Amino acid sequence: MLDTIDQFLGDTAGLLWGNPLTLILLLGTGLYLTIRLGLVQVVAFREGWRALRGTDGRAGGTGQISPFQALSTALSGTIGTGNIAGVATAIALGGPGALFWMWVTAFFGMATKFAETTLAVRYREIAPDGSIAGGPMFTLLNGLKMKKLAILFAAFTLIASFGIGNMVQANSVVDGLTFIVPDLRADDDIMGWMALIIGLTMAVLVALVIIGGVKRIAMIASTIVPFMAVVYMLGAFVVIVANIQAVPAAVGTILNLALNPWAAGGGAIGLAIQYGVARGMFSNEAGLGSSAMAHAAAKNGDPPREGSVAMLEPFIDTIVVCTLTGLAIVVTGAYIDRADDVVGASLTATAFSSTLGPFGAMVVGISLMLFAFSTMIAWSYYGDRSAYFLFGERAVMPYRVVFVILIVIGATIPLGVVWNFSDIANIAMAAPNLIALILLAGLVKKLRDDYVAHRPMPDRHER
Question: How many other β-carbons are positioned within 10 Å of the β-carbon of residue 221?
Fold first, then answer.
């Protein structure tokens, strides 16, 4: 029965993510918003960095966390297994050209992040105790009066938080350990016990963080995210520098296989686009509306100001971190003549190890563990806000308890069903969010224009 369910969910997830219409909808919305908002990811790029540092003269506003903490929390949810395993999978299955289409996805995704975050801050709700709840479900409810779609978004986000935001990540931590101690793979009994110990340890650590709500999550994320990103990027940078003579040819290969139909055939370009767009979306989550929930809690009185901070996520996540992973794989030639089972994180570990030796696999393993942990604490907040929206404050603590318990389960079971179900839930999240973005694009443009004109744009609770 489980195999049948797994097969059905796998086929459904493959149909949804492999469907050109899905990818066109996700990428097309970003293209539409790019045009509608006047290339906002370019003209407001510097504004985002200034707002992040608080040097733009517009700091302040209602909120629970700083813009930097909001960005760190959102990045802790997006910088994860997709940056290590997702890039490698895209290159293994779609060829090096897939990396170019990940860049394209990130570029248009910046406009999508700007819009969904601007709306999240505009339509967030502030409780009497000062706690904040925001995100696409509140945009759909308060901005479009689409209660049923709002409920659907929150329900699928809740489901996704248990899957891609929890059990999948817990299992990735166990995978990370096997790169650090390869001999564990050879003994199933020891591996089983280690997985249980890791699961229990992770459950305790995550519980200590999420029990304190968004402020503690943001505090931990703003500490972990810069550290883990720097460690991983340094490892990738050393691999690239050690093979610096191969970089020009690698870039040429990426562009050639992404754009030249005669290089490897039109079908190869189709695969590069499919896997590049799908894995790019998976990595930076542009269009899902997830990180907008973190940014909604930021101390920012101007919705477009926080939007400019949020659009830095795809740049950092995909154009910087994923590019380093992809170049490390291509310059080392690790994707060429690889074994059939060397696809995801193992392909990245192979690339790092070719230059750094056993230390390379350790860097990948430790990064995978840190990335997965940070993703869990971020997604716990997304699920937390969804539970609050659906059932009220009384549901928040039970949700956190269930979330912590599922970490132990996720660390110890095969995750085929969970992966596939999570992929379906993510698409189901994206659909209502994209509807809101398209219908409210005009409002986002007005908010942006008023912000640029220095007209005060308080959120609706301050009117």
Answer: 27
The C-alpha atoms of residue 436 and residue 303 are separated, in whole angstroms, by: 16
Model confidence at 407: pLDDT above 60 = yes
- 415 falls in which pLDDT band (50, 70, 90)? low
Q: What is the pLDDT of residues 29-67, one digit of tens each?
A: 999 999 999 999 999 999 999 999 888 878 777 889 999
Q: CB 29: neighbour CB atoms within 10 A? A: 25
Token pair for 277 = 């767009």
The contacts of residue 232 (CB under 8 Å, 6+ apart) are 83, 84, 321, 324, 363, 367, 371
Measured in residues, the chain has a length of 463
Residues 6+ apart with CB under 8 A from 447: 118, 122, 303, 304, 457
Range of lowest pLDDT (130-144, 164-178, 359-373):
164-178
Closest CA to 369 of 339, 411, 338: 411
Q: Of 376, 395, 403, 386, which is closest to residue 155 (Cα–Cα)?
A: 386
| Residue 206 buriedness (CB in 10 A; 0-12 / 13-18 / 19+) | buried
Question: For residue range 262-271, what is the model confidence (pLDDT) as tens digits?
Answer: 766 556 787 8
Residue with tokens 């700083």: 66
Model confidence at 238: pLDDT above 60:
yes
Q: What's the DSSP call for residue 395?
A: G
Q: Would residue 302 be called left, alpha or beta, if left means φ above 0 and alpha means ψ between -120 and 50 degrees?
A: beta
Q: What is the pTM of this model?
A: 0.91
Separation of alpha carbons 18 and 176, rounded Å: 28
Phi, psi of 95 (to 5 degrees): 85, 165
